[in-house]
Amino acid sequence: MDKYIILSPEAKGSFNDRLNFLYLKLGNHLDIEKMEHRTLQYCKVFLSDSQNQIKELQESLLYQEFLKDTNLTIVEQTPLNGSKISLLVKTTDVHTPMLFHSIRLTEEEAKDKNSYEQTRMIFDRYQQAISKTGMTMERNLVRTWIYVAHIDVNYQGVVEARNDVFDEEGLTADTHYIASTGIGGATPVRHATVAIDFLTYPDIQESDKKYLQALEHLNPTHEYGVAFERGTRLTLPSQQQYFISGTASIDKHGQVVYEGDVVRQTGRLLENIGALLKDGDATMNDIQYFIIYLRDISDYHTVEMLMNQFYPQIPHIIVEAKVCRPGWLIEMECIAEKQ
């Protein structure tokens, strides 16, 4: 089985002190995992200030020894536990082939291009990467993460670009879309408004996928003009994986529920996640981790208390990241697994 862990430095000194702490902490974790025949497969790095931190990160022992040769993504979404940097780490003893593309634009590519144009450029680059493999976006792409700087301004361009790409590739409301999180986030590139991560499985067929619905809780996304699946269950030889998209406090009519109340919004979105998992014959107990996005950092302690109260056994990280609708104070995503 896979194992997920979230690591944050306990050291509160300089950024370099925190990198060194994580180097020791991750190294110790991987030594233990090796005894269980699990190896590092994926790492997500959350930074608080990517422009000022990226160079030091890339020169660190943490990066050079453990991160640079694995499936890696780096995003500026400030960890709200005060750590400056946190890691979501996946180890596995399962050797199902997977490809991970973390596509970022350079300053030259991004400058003078709006969010629509940048999104199209990134999707084009992904399609070029898989074009000679026999894979297609429709069959093999399972999950995306779309990070949007200044999301209240730039999200609409991302939506329109993705809709156009999917139309061209034959992905429709009558076929399927892709599980996804579209959320606030930044890269070290000043003029980049969009960055995207793509998770692709080379050996799957459409029959290996089930698109999760909970129509008494959430409406289909196309009803309000966006194109993503609420969740996808992927049946692999060794296990079932559940990719739950970014989920918020929404009702079956597509309306924001409990505006202004982060406690009740948290409860509603967790209810929505449970309903999606139920459609794939899974439960909340199968969740491996949560990523929790907050619009307002002052809600951190309230949400941290709720998660520790209701799901103390499930790793989670809470980061600052604006959700695509201002009325949503909180959004969560997760992965669940069953043998």
TrEMBL record:
Molecular function (Gene Ontology), one example: deaminase activity
Domain of life assignment: Bacteria
InterPro entries: RutC-like_sf, YjgF/YER057c/UK114
One Pfam family recorded for the sequence: Ribonuc_L-PSP
Gene3D superfamilies hit by this protein: RutC-like
A Gene Ontology term for the protein's cellular component: cytosol
Transmembrane stretches, start-end: none
Protein name: Translation initiation inhibitor
